[in-house]
Design a protein that fits this description.
By secondary structure, this protein is mostly helical. Helices cover about 75% and strands about 0% of the residues.
């Protein structure tokens, strides 16, 4: 639960930095933001920004359910960061089924950007992929999917997330034909990234 709280805080910080300029230029009330966010018309990006601003204000007020509602709307408008935020809130509420669904949506949207000029959001990959991969390995919130979990660990490790590199190494050592030298490479990468468990696995 503590890691999820940190995830929420980190996601909020990134989103705040993203929307700060727009918010300072045109400060709107929560009522106005809500109308834009939940409107069925208008520019989707403008609606997402309104949802994000409303969500941040609700979160600051500890109005978690209202923040979740705004995040859910932004997620439906294809905001991967909002989907991740909604997933973190649901996991904190012990609703692993909804958390996994939101996390999966965040993952899919982020990966859709992989071949675009901007590419994936590496910050999201670092904070989300290992958490979601662990859920898939354990069957939390849905069926076990070891193959996709391994892929997520690989993708997280590509952006130098120590947790993902360690998870990938552990998966490799648990396979029917373990490749210990290959696993050690990932443990070493995790250790280089400053993740202590990766260093421990090399001992």
């Amino acid at each position: 639960e503590g890691s999820m709280i940190r995830l929420i805080s980190l996601l909020m910080a990134i989103l705040f930095a993203t929307t700060l300029t727009a918010a300072s230029k045109d400060k709107k009330s929560l009522t106005e933001l809500g109308k834009i966010c939940f409107s069925e018309e208008g520019d989707p990006q403008v609606r997402v920004e309104a949802c994000d601003q409303a969500r941040m204000e609700y979160f600051d007020q500890n109005a978690i359910e209202k923040a979740l509602k705004a995040a859910t709307q932004a997620c439906a408008l294809r905001s991967e960061m909002a989907c991740a935020f909604a997933g973190a809130v649901c996991l904190k509420k012990k609703d692993s089924h909804k958390a996994r669904a939101f996390y999966m949506e965040a993952y899919k949207i982020n990966e859709e950007h992989r071949d675009s000029p901007l590419g994936i959001n590496p910050y999201l990959a670092k904070t989300l992929y290992s958490e979601l991969a662990k859920m898939l390995l354990k069957g939390d919130g849905g069926p076990i999917d070891s193959k996709l979990a391994k892929t997520m660990f690989e993708q997280g490790c590509e952006v130098e997330d120590g947790k993902s590199c360690t998870g990938l190494g552990i998966v490799i050592t648990s396979e029917a034909t373990p490749d210990f030298p290959r696993a050690a490479l990932f443990f070493n990468k995790a250790c280089d990234a400053g993740f202590g468990l990766g260093c421990f696995m090399l001992a």
